[in-house]
Amino acid sequence: MSEAEPEHWERANRELIAKLLTELAFEDVLLPETAEQDDGGAAFTLAMGERIVLRYAGRPRPLGGWRIDPASVTAEVDGRPAPLPGAAELVAAGAPALGADASTTAGLVGEVAMTVRSDAAQLACGRPAAELLDLDPLLLEGEMRGHPWIVASKGRVGFSAADADAYAPEAQQPIALPWLAVDPALAEVRGLDNTTVVREQVGEQGFAELRRRAAAAGIDPAVLLPVHPWQWENRIRVLHAGDLANGRIAHLGALGDRYLAQQSIRTLADAAEPGRRMLKLPVSILNTSVYRGLPRDRTLAAPALTDWLTTRCSADPFLRECGLELLGEVASVSVPHAAFEAIPDVPYQHTELLGAIWREPVTPRLRPGERAITLAALIHSDPAGTAFVEPLIARSGLTVEAWATALHEATLPPLVHVLYRHGTTFSAHAQNCMIVLRDDVPVRLVVKDFIDDMQISAEPIPELADLPPAVRAALGDGVEAPIITQWVWCGLMVCVHRYLAELLEQRLGYPPDAFWAAAERAIAAYQERFADELGDRFALFDFDAPAFVKLCLNRVRLLGRGYADAAERPTAAAIGFLENPLAPREALA
How far is CA 111 from the centre of its chain? Predict the structure, then answer.
């Protein structure tokens, strides 16, 4: 990416400031003076530190809060009108007043600056929404603008500008993956045997070449695994220098440029052979909320978790009827670092350095006439402001009401059924899921990254009694029913549908109340069908509750963990409640 033109930087900066004002107020971090207007909107005044005052306007959003209009934001400095500062400057001025320490404030300045740079580049080269409808799904991932809720959505602490230009999904650059040969005594392998999975990944010729290079390096037999080039240069060459020197690990070089980064950065797809398995590799940068390594326990448990859950779901008549697809993580390798592993309570980033997971691709699962796109596309808008769903719905020939109903019927029944029937769930947010379309109409749900977020109920329900030891060890004792219910509700309703309902209202005039009512009908129809079999579970996992706890993501970085290391990954903060739009109308009265 070249450096941003002034107009693109200024627009990206203004839009990020509006996002900051929108999402931090939603999380009750910012408390501006508010004057509601007769037209349903509101005007706001907010002091950012001692010298800067912002004035802006917004309109109410689904699930509460206000969507701030970027064009409305104006600034005063020392009581006089002034040009709008950079988002980083506003963070520097405002974060300390909110209680953030100097280290956290400085870290946020860097993350915000990196995010604005990336946003400006996407404004410069983003394709019109109509051109995205039939774009290769692997390239479509690179058009997405990042996490809709987290302000510094592309902070990528650890990446240089050149790294972002080479490895970020929006760069859409082919990546050559170096391969390593590892002494089998050092690597732990699970799932499909390493020979099988690597041969199927690189083909017979590529596999023979890797074996030849490994033998020449003196490691034969060897465990073969790819490594992200950034991870190799910034972590493995330094931290595993001893293993490289004594021949326990050998660098084999790359086999060609062919992989594309997907939205999560650490997931890579084979652009030359989309039907081959996807790779999930550690990239130890801090982005959105966590370091993007591969947790050893979940990496090693992934094939067993996949086997248990997919076996249950594939044998479930209702889930077969729904066509739910779970893209399993069928093979994994993890290589420990002896020194870090010996440190009590070592920060988690240091135990997630070297490994690989092979995940099934979606292409072989598709039926004639189907295509699968990232769920994030449904909340994407192009640089002109046109939402992806506008031309999509128009081309489908359906009304907005009928299209939204189809979406809810494709997504909600299978998600709630996995919880009701099997006592388990995962976070169905936009990066983790795909939606299968036929004639531009949603027909099925694909969950492509469920292992990291998989949870089981702590309640002693019969379906969990025979969990294999490896699965039980990875998942622990489970979580309480209200929390696991919230896991589903927040992942889809708050992280995705809160934004989709807003877009459909703004761009197509479809009222949010109608959107939520269609979702409520989809769940009600499901519950009516299974009332006799699962009625007790409906009360246990209560999606009809009048409200759910409001989870906050930005607050964790700003006022919680900051940039401090810890043994455990940070969790969302819980502040207040959100009215449940899926609750029966009488529950809200």
Answer: 17
Q: Do residues 230 and 268 make contact, with C-beta atoms less than 8 angstroms apart?
A: no
Token pair 């934004």 is found at 499
Residue 589 has pLDDT above 60, yes or no: no
Whole-angstrom Cα distance, residue 354 to residue 395? 45
| Cis status of the peptide bond prior to 414, with omega within 30 of 0 | no
Average pLDDT over residues 102-116: 97
- Lowest mean pLDDT, pick from 186-190, 526-530, 545-549: 545-549
Contact by Cβ (8 Å): 91, 108 = yes
What pLDDT, in 10s, does the model give residues 381-435? 999 999 999 999 999 999 999 999 999 999 999 999 999 999 999 888 888 999 9
CATH value of 6-125 in 3.30.310.280, 3.30.930.20, 3.40.1350.10, 3.50.50.60 = 3.30.310.280
Is the CB of residue 265 less than 8 Å from the CB of residue 169?
yes
- Region at 153 (left for phi over 0; alpha for psi -120 to 50; beta for the rest): alpha
Q: Residues for the chain: how many in total?
A: 589
Write the DSSP symbol of residue 3: P
Q: Percent of the chain having pLDDT more than 70? A: 99
Concatenate the DSSP letters of all residues of 486-527 into one string. HHHHIIIIIIIIHHHHHHHHHHH---HHHHHHHHHHHHHHHH
CB 477 within 8 A of CB 408: no
Query: In the prediction, which pLDDT does 585 show?
Result: 59
**What number of other Cβ atoms are within 10 A of residue 191's Cβ?**
22
pLDDT at 2: 66
Can you list the pairs that 565-570 forms with residues at least 24 positions away whose Cβ atoms lie under 8 Å? Answer: 565/347, 565/349, 566/347, 566/348, 567/345, 567/346, 567/347, 567/348, 568/348, 569/289, 569/290, 569/348, 570/289, 570/290
Residue-range domain boundaries for the chain: 6-125, 161-359, 368-518
The answer for residues whose C-beta is within 8 angstroms of residue 571's C-beta and 6 or more apart is: 556
Q: For domain 368-518, which CATH number applies: 1.10.238.10, 1.10.510.40, 3.40.640.10, 1.10.357.10?
A: 1.10.510.40
CA 555 to chain centre: 18
Q: 508-521: per-residue pLDDT in tens? A: 999 999 999 999 99
CA-nearest of 302, 135, 159 to 229 is 159
Tell me, what amino acid is at 89? E
